[in-house]
Amino acid sequence: MTPFQLFILRLRRTRIVVGFCSALVCSVAIGKPRLEQLEPDSPLRSIPGDAVKAFRDSKYLWIEYCPDNTCDVIRTSAKVDIDAFASLASAYYFYFSRYEYLKQWQSDVGLGHKIDKKLISLARQEECSGLAGKDLARCRLTGLERQSGLQILFIRYDEQSRSKLRIPTKEALQ
To answer: From which domain of life does this come (predicted)?
Structure first.
């Protein structure tokens, strides 16, 4: 076979592989974010509207709340389990997000207890012991920052431009 024929054969094989790869596998291979599914009973699902979405690419896992042309994003390493991260993101949005749209959702005491219960189940015995509510959430989120590089971002879309601001975790968790 000539070099050109070998090239064509390789190209055909590549097309066959690409043609049969699933969207999920292809998107991870080329680094495009893919939508992650949240647990059916995740507190994030009870946020009004369709403003919460979870994504993963080859480097990061993130959950964003985008009620308008702005987004409150909590992001960590792609190696973190989506369900555990969704529980921590729920705590962040419940206790620390300053969006006016979330005020009614944040006032649900029963939801706060559900989030706390999940945070306690995620913690090791010695970690965050004796804490509850906002203090427990702060402890767990600070732990995730140390372990897996938690980041909190504010994103704004204006006239087809995107502005991203990283908010120091200590400041965001006040």
So the answer is: Bacteria
